[in-house]
Amino acid sequence: MSVREVPGYGGEGRRCYVIGDGDGPVSRLVNEMEAARLEPTEGALDGPESTYAELVALVAQLAHALDDVLRIAECGGTTQAR
């Protein structure tokens, strides 16, 4: 049995956790949520030409994604297959 954090926060800024064996429907939903949180940064650096505003937005997205990656890693969300 494992405990892992659900991406995002619950009500009033509290963290949400799922407890289980990692194979149930809630765990699969959490896997999908984690993948969705990490997806926006994929391919972000594909083009060599970017405007200043695009780069600023990209840095903000990457910082947010890094925060998500760190929280997912800290909570043991290592079941995703790529």
Q: Helix fraction?
A: 40-55%
Largest sheet: 2 strands, antiparallel
Number of helices: 2
> What is the string of SSEs from the N terminus onward?
EEHH
Report how far the terminal alpha carbons are from each other.
23 Å
* Helix/sheet category: alpha+beta
Low-confidence stretches: none
* Overall pLDDT level: 75
Percent strand equals 15-25%
Any idea what the radius of gyration is? 15 Å
Q: Judging from the principal axes of the Cα atoms, what is the shape?
A: elongated
DSSP strand count: 2
Question: Strand arrangement, largest sheet?
Answer: 1-2
Task: Describe it.
- With about 80 residues, the chain is an alpha+beta fold.
- About 45% of the residues lie in helices and about 15% in strands.
- The longest helix has 23 residues, at about 50-75.
- The two termini are about 25 Å apart.
